[in-house]
């Protein structure tokens, strides 16, 4: 009887493990207390939807009645920036005084200061997730952390990326690529929404990610389809 | 021979008209010169993706090698605003000094000043398009211009909208609704991307709108599916 109970237990355990493996791989662990800090790297000319898509996804995640993420912008200075299309944004922090984030989002943008690239490189060690969107992948690749890994970018920039970063394995035709344990790269523009939903799933599982997508009225299925 | 040529001409004309009717209905006419001015109404707490989605769509429309739209933000004052999730944005104009727009985008937001509502109401007469996104439909309905017309909003707010605006015919389950010759209302959050693509189609036809969607790597089909 004990053996039968043990067998039942094992079967249930394996089933749960299989279900979990299909659901979240690898699983990220949220902090024991408080929301997950997400830093958006913003410099001159940052592309609106590249940061606004993930921004909206992360801010709409509710777990046990609480907002699961806390968002802020980080730049070279606190001077106001002109975002793509002409919107004026004032950054919250600089690379010298930003609170340590668990997640970093790098949209397409003009900035490429040594301080910015060094900060991004450090976050690829310190944080849980560093994710680029669109040609933000160029900034991430410039730090060297993508060398030897797979990555993607906006479809109009595949050839340029491949030529400029021969040590990175360019992946075409996907919404996003899991580029390493902490590194993720999305395709162009709206692809960042899918990658952000994928990160939500890695932290909190499929149901919370689906709830977020439904709240967003998001119809794209790439965040489920293009999981590694 | 002249009659035959005339017949050929007529046939070609009718075919072109039929093709156009299937393509764009009703057709909006861009200004003879220069880009189409698009004003984004932004006040405290404006929801990021509600304005960022249409912002990205409009800024990415290229016609004959030129950007087809020019974007700016309008608010009660030029004082900096806190957008949903905490981003700081500085408006370009106030309701008193904004250049006259052809298109007005109204995202979900906190503002409801008499000046703002009067300006929106005026633009529903002066412009080509006044479009709300998400609960921005509440602001549009508050001006009275939706009375007797169909409209939609975020799915979580259907009942509240129907109760508060009994003179407006609430439509459920669509990405957007053509609410009248100049009035359009989108559902929640990402639905604004579909409505913006629809507006692009009304100005420039299906091919330009498709090119924009492809550039955006946008996978949603609602902008085609939910046309009236």
Features:
two-stranded antiparallel sheet, 8 helices, globular, seven-stranded mixed sheet, disordered N terminus, 228 residues, alpha/beta, Rossmann fold, 13 strands, homodimer
Structural summary, described in words:
The structure is a homodimer of 228-residue chains. With 228 residues, chain A is α/β, with parallel strands linked by helices. Chain A has one domain: 3-Layer(aba) Sandwich (Rossmann fold). The first copy, chain A, has 8 helices and 13 strands. In chain A, the strands form 4 sheets. Chain A has a 7-stranded mixed β-sheet with strand order 7-4-1-8-9-13-12, sandwiched between helices. Chain A has a two-stranded antiparallel sheet with strand order 2-3. The interface between A and B is large, with 41 and 41 residues.
Count every beta strand of chain A, where a strand is a DSSP E run of 2 or more residues.
13
CATH homologous superfamily annotation of chain A: Class I glutamine amidotransferase (GATase) domain
CATH top level label of chain A = Alpha Beta
| Share in helix of chain A | 25-40%
Spatial strand arrangement across the major sheet of chain A: 7-4-1-8-9-13-12
Brief description of this entry?
Chain A contains eight helices and 13 strands. The first copy, chain A, is α/β, with parallel strands linked by helices and 228 residues long.
């Amino acid at each position: 009887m004990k053996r039968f109970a043990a067998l039942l237990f094992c079967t249930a355990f394996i089933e749960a493990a299989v279900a979990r493996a299909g659901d979240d791989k690898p699983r990220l662990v949220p902090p024991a207390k408080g929301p997950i800090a997400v830093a958006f790297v913003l410099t001159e000319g940052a592309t609106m939807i590249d940061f606004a898509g993930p921004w909206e996804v992360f801010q709409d995640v509710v777990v046990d009645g609480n907002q699961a993420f806390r968002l802020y912008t980080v730049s070279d200075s606190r001077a106001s920036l002109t975002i793509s299309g002409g919107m004026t944004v004032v950054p919250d922090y600089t690379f010298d005084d930003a609170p340590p984030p668990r997640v970093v989002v790098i949209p397409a943008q003009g900035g490429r200061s040594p301080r910015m690239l060094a900060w991004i490189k450090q976050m690829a060690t310190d944080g849980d997730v560093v994710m680029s969107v669109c040609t933000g992948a160029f900034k991430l690749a410039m730090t060297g952390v993508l060398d030897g890994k797979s990555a993607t970018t906006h479809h109009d920039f595949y050839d340029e990326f491949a030529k400029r970063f021969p040590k990175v394995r360019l992946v075409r035709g996907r919404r996003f690529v899991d580029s390493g344990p902490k590194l993720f790269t999305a395709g162009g523009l709206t692809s960042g929404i899918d990658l952000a939903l994928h990160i939500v799933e890695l932290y909190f599982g499929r149901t919370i990610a689906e709830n977020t997508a439904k709240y967003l009225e998001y119809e794209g299925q790439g965040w489920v389809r293009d999981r590694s």
